[in-house]
Design a protein that fits this description.
Strand order of the largest sheet: 2-3-8-7-4-9
Number of helices: 0
Structural class: mainly beta
Distance between the termini: 161 Å
Radius of gyration: 64 Å
Strand content: 35-45%
Number of strands: 78
């Protein structure tokens, strides 16, 4: 222990109304002796007994430093976040003795733990009050403590006094459009990354990794090149991630890797609760003259008093700092909210608890075609209280708002926004501010152990006790407690534990009592532990034996024993307490009983004599005969037998020495089983025959001829009684039967073969007597023109299994349905066949179908002055029907028709044969008709008409012409010739011809018929 008589008071002194406080760094702590050493001597007024102490380890965690998205994650806390309240008992320079038992060990490397000293509050607290800022080693904690209720009239402000934000720096960027600055850390001089925010990681983990987007545990990551935003700080919830620099041009430097938000720190670990400064926000990446830093994290406010009275609605603030707006660079992340601890039994009055996270920086693009990256918001902080919460608290734990890229042409408002920080928490504290027991006030107690054996070795006390206080063991004697120092029956007697090499005889009341005294620094007794041990002696063996022939019943009369072992003298052993044993033969045996306990063993040997009688062997059996594969049970009915053994050419189950066994006879035949009854060295033997039969084996054949059933059981083995039961007919016996069945129908036949040992073998089959089947065809038509469609129907009678149609040249050509629709496309005579398959054999029916050529209707016409000459070109027709479209018609083969008026007419020809008809129509246009129907009316003579060849024409002068039905002119005269003309139609075919005559500007047409 260092002793310092005088010392300089720490410069972090801060004056408060009715209270003063200071902060120093922990150098050494001894939780055993309950003192600690700080880095400077303690000055007044903090050296006074009762000064409040607050220990807090603000950093020291080990983090993952690989270049991945896990950078900054916790690998080991190393005590980070531990805290406790205590009071000063005494001060000697830089050494402080604590009034209460120190709870934790703390990390002292790199000034990782601070101790805040605060004089007790003795008057109402007026504000605003703030502690000195955290300077990287200490500060940032406002501590108020009192043994009486505290009245708070003013604001308590530790906002922005926690971990520092990432410092601003101008990064002389050397990026190009191919630059991909995506690492999670860079050293402090590397232009690719901005500085990370302050956090709880041990300093060694940040050496050479000061910049870049990976977080410093709860400190936000710095924005990476080019001009991306920094991440927000964290407390026990996440900080918000910064936003990217959205470059509009392909060849511009991109900024796609903003700072990650700070990672959350654990609040609770088993029974240890932790608190933290708010993490600093990461700096935004900047290369212009006015870059911005990240926002500072919030500090810590601790109030410890029996009661807290808020007066005037004060605000207790540990808010995280906002990052400032920046133009033309990446924005910094907001700081996280800090922590507030309220250790009290009651709270009254209204107050605001502001643990909000700081806002990320907005980025002003200054009207340029740019979209720089704004900063992420810091997370909210954490409120802890061990008293009842009050509804009058106004709790602000929101995370900071992520910054926005504004006033730019490359992104619209709201398009490029960083993440908000997460909401903080409010919860109950899980540890008291200090232990109940003072450090040097050890209790005195008496412990009674379980009974132990005299002379045995035993260790008592606590070998794990590492207390700094001296120890000495004593033993109680009839007169007084005497020291054990120098006693050879014990190990060292000045340690917290005592090795007893051999427990002595009881001293008082069957027990022995030891006493451990602990001594303080001045030799005073600070604790007394009395241990009483009931003592027990070793066991004593004793037993009695009662014989019955070869069986002996033993009774264990031993005392003080916890276990026993019997040796019967015949090589067998037992550990039962009161066993019964049967010897294999008559004789005298030496029986040994060994009893034991935790305190030793004892042995007793006695002789016992046994005598056996001759047994009578007898067998009981469940059945002497079974079916092969079945089981026969055998029963031992012997008298005066102590054991039995079964023998024979079978396997006995479960074994061959049980009173009841069973055997499985897998093969047919007879076997002899023997039973030997044993009583010691006396025995008797008996036997019994058992046998097995096989199930009957057979093959059944059956046939029905008409209504006569013939059935036969062939290859019959393993003789049996045979029965045939025919439903509705009767029961018959024998290997074969011939039975006349009453008539058509289904008959069930049950065949049973039974040999009396095996389960009856039963086979069931069904036979059927059928009615005769007749094939019958029904069709819709038997003759017609092609294509001819016919529907065929199966009208067959009797049982039908299936059917088959054959349609020669039909479509389809075959079928198997009761109704089939078939088309015959070609003329001809077809024999349709229906085959019906039935139980009595196939039946066939046929039907002839005649298909004829359909007529073909065809004609041509020649029209002249209303005269229509037809030429009939139809085929395969026997009669005709003409319709000239003017209400008149004709049945002639090639009629000539004269229209009475001009117009358009539809001429239709129907050509008929015996089965069908076909029609065809043509349109005829009549634009002129003859004005004279009789040639004599104009002085014209045409004769003979009809003619066989020669035709004489006389009359007035005019133009004559004769045309055929095709409109071809065959004969004509000179226009001015007198109407005398001889026309020879002898070489022309028979038919209708037209004579056209033009006279005095008028045209006439007359019909001429050549036979």
């Amino acid at each position: 222990m260092r002793l310092v008589l005088t010392g300089l008071f720490l410069s972090l002194f801060f004056s408060l109304t009715a209270q003063q406080q200071s902060a120093l760094n922990l150098v050494q702590i001894d939780t055993c002796a309950n003192y600690f050493i700080v880095d400077e001597a303690i000055a007044a007024p903090y050296d006074a007994a009762g000064t409040f102490l607050f220990f807090h380890q603000h950093r020291g965690a080990a983090i993952i430093t690989e270049d991945s998205d896990q950078f900054g994650s916790i690998s080991e806390l190393n005590g980070t976040g531990r805290y406790e309240l205590n009071r000063v008992a005494a001060v000697n320079g830089d050494t402080v003795f604590a009034q209460f038992k120190l709870r934790h060990d703390y990390l002292t490397d790199d000034n990782s733990t601070s101790v805040t000293f605060a004089t007790p509050v003795d008057a109402p607290v007026s504000g605003p009050l703030s502690p000195a800022p955290f300077n990287g080693n200490r500060g940032g904690i406002l501590l108020l403590g009192s043994d009486d209720p505290i009245t708070i009239n003013g604001d308590l402000d530790a906002s922005k006094l926690g971990f520092a934000g990432g410092q601003e720096s101008i990064r002389d960027s050397d990026c190009g459009f191919l630059t991909n600055a995506n690492d999670y850390f860079y050293d402090s001089d590397n232009w690719r990354g901005a500085f990370k925010g302050g956090g709880a990681a041990a300093l060694s983990f940040l050496n050479g990794r000061e910049t870049g987007r990976g977080p410093n545990l709860n400190g936000g990551g710095g924005g990476n090149d080019h001009n991306s935003g920094g991440g927000g700080g964290a407390n026990i919830t996440n900080g918000g991630e910064g936003a990217s620099n959205e470059e509009p041009g392909f060849f511009n430097c991109s900024g796609n890797f903003p700072g990650l938000g700070g990672r959350p720190l654990p609040g609770n670990e088993a029974s240890i609760q932790r608190i933290h400064f708010g993490g600093g926000g990461g700096a935004g990446h900047g290369n212009n003259p006015n870059p911005t830093a990240g926002g500072n994290g919030g500090g810590i406010i601790v109030v410890s008093a029996p009661g807290i009275v808020f007066n005037g609605s004060p605000t207790l603030s540990v808010k995280g700092g906002d990052a400032l707006e920046v133009g033309g660079d990446g924005g910094g992340g907001g700081g996280a909210g800090g922590s507030i601890l309220l250790f009290t039994e009651s709270v009254s009055g209204a107050a605001t608890m502001d643990l909000s996270g700081g806002n990320g920086a907005d980025v002003n693009n200054e009207g340029q075609n740019r979209c720089f990256g704004p900063g992420g918001g810091g997370s909210g902080g954490r409120l802890l209280y061990n008293g009842p919460p009050t509804g009058e608290w106004s709790l602000l734990v929101a995370g900071g708002t992520g910054g926005e890229s504004i006033n730019g042409l490359a992104c619209a408002p709201g398009e490029n926004v960083a993440q908000n920080g997460s909401v903080g928490l409010s919860e109950a504290a899980i540890q008291q501010p200090q232990t109940i027991q003072e450090a040097l006030n050890y209790p005195s107690e008496t412990i009674v152990l379980e009974a132990a054996c005299i002379g045995s070795a035993l260790e008592i006390g606590n070998a794990e006790d590492q207390s700094c206080f001296a120890a000495q063991w004593f033993i109680n004697t009839p007169n007084a407690f005497e020291t054990l120092a120098g006693n050879p029956d014990y190990g060292p007697t000045n340690l917290p534990s005592l090795n007893i090499l051999s427990l002595p005889e009881p001293v008082i009341g069957g027990t022995v009592e030891y006493r451990l005294e602990r001594y303080g620094p001045n030799g005073q007794i600070v604790a007394v532990l009395s241990i009483r041990i009931p003592l027990i002696d070793g066991p004593t063996a004793a037993f009695t034996a009662v014989t019955d022939q070869l069986t002996v019943a033993f009774t264990n009369n031993s005392t003080g024993a916890s276990g026993q072992q019997w040796f019967y003298g015949d090589g067998l052993v037992s550990t039962e307490e009161d066993p019964e044993h049967t010897y294999s033969a008559s004789g005298t045996y030496e029986v040994t009983l060994v009893v034991s306990s935790d305190c030793g063993n004892d042995t007793l040997i006695q002789e016992v004599t046994v005598l056996a009688t001759v047994p009578t062997a007898a067998i009981g059996v469940s059945s002497e005969g079974v079916c092969s594969g079945d089981t026969i049970f055998l029963y031992n009915l012997s008298e005066n037998a102590t054991s039995v053994e079964w023998s024979g050419p079978v396997e006995f189950m479960p074994d061959a020495i049980s009173d009841t066994v069973f055997v499985v006879l897998d093969a047919p035949g007879t076997e002899t089983v023997m039973l030997t009854a044993q009583n010691g060295d006396m025995q008797n033997v008996t036997s019994i025959e058992i046998f097995a039969a096989e199930p009957p084996l057979f093959t059944l054949t059956a046939s029905v001829n008409g209504n006569v059933l013939t059935a036969l059981a062939e290859s019959l083995m393993n003789g049996a009684n045979l029965t045939w039961e025919i439903s509705g007919v009767g029961t018959f016996t024998g290997e074969s039967i011939t039975v006349e069945l009453p008539g058509p129908g289904l008959y069930d036949v049950i065949f049973t073969a039974d040999n009396g040992l095996c389960p009856p073998q039963i086979e069931v089959f069904t036979v059927e007597v059928f009615e005769p089947t007749v094939a019958i065809i029904d069709q819709t038509i038997t003759a017609g023109c092609a294509p001819l469609s016919v529907q065929f129907n199966n009208l067959s009678t009797g049982p039908i299994d299936s059917l088959r149609w054959n349609f020669p040249d039909g479509d389809p050509a075959t079928g198997n349905q009761s109704t089939e629709n078939v088309t015959f496309n070609e003329p001809g005579t077809y024999e349709v066949e229906l085959t019906v398959f039935s139980p009595t054999g196939p039946q066939i029916a046929t039907q002839t179908i005649q298909v004829f050529e359909p007529p073909v209707a065809s004609f041509t016409t020649e029209e002249d002055l209303g005269f229509l000459i037809t030429t009939n070109l139809s085929m395969s027709a026997s009669s005709y029907q003409w319709d000239f479209g003017d209400g008149s018609g004709s049945n002639e083969f090639e009629p000539t028709h004269q229209y009475e008026a001009t117009g358009t007419y539809e001429v239709t020809l129907n050509a008929f044969n015996d089965f069908c008809s076909r029609a065809i129509s043509q349109t005829v246009f009549v634009d002129m008709i003859s004005s004279v129907a009789n040639p004599e009316d104009i002085g014209l003579a045409i004769y003979p008409n009809p003619t066989s060849g020669q035709l004489q024409i006389t009359g007035p002068a005019g133009q004559f012409s004769v045309v055929n039905a095709l409109g071809q002119t065959l004969f004509s005269n000179h226009p001015k010739a007198r109407g005398n003309m001889n026309v020879d139609l002898g070489s022309q075919p028979a038919g209708i011809y037209l004579l056209r005559f033009e006279h005095e500007g008028t045209s006439y047409t007359f019909r001429i018929q050549k036979d």
